[in-house]
Design brief:
Length: 131
């Protein structure tokens, strides 16, 4: 009669450790790459629509428009001017932080911070108050 070698058809029970159950963190470059892709889309759109937002004063002229509209336009142009510097600094910081696990949260937050100025400009442009 034929006998199977020992252990060939048996299941070996192993215990799982916490290291085997916890998911692996995302690679260090995930947040900066996502920010790069989004910034490549958001900044041109923010510049285009922010530049066109001055046409919102065509119906009333710059002197007779509501103060809410003029305030929004001032914030849009200020964000386009100074927000670009902030966004560039946060973007460079997201790529320049050390590639260690303990810096991953700060790297993610700086990548998100780089997206805030163009996002704010687009939000303000699409919610301009009535002239």
């Amino acid at each position: 009669m034929f006998r199977h070698p020992p252990g060939r058809f048996t299941v070996r029970m192993t215990s799982t450790t916490a290291d085997e159950i916890t998911p692996r963190p995302a690679p260090f470059w995930t947040a900066p790459v996502i920010a790069t892709v989004l910034l490549a889309v958001l900044w041109p759109a923010a510049l285009f629509f922010g530049g066109l937002s001055a046409m919102a004063t065509d119906a009333c002229g710059p002197d007779d428009c509501s103060s809410g509209l003029m305030t929004s336009l001032s914030v849009i142009y200020g964000t386009l001017s100074y927000g670009g510097l902030f966004s560039a600094a946060a973007y460079v910081a997201a790529w320049a932080l050390p590639r260690e696990r303990r810096w991953s949260a700060l790297r993610s937050w700086t990548a998100i911070a780089a997206l805030l100025p163009p996002g704010l400009v687009l939000l303000l442009v699409f919610t301009l108050p009535a002239p």
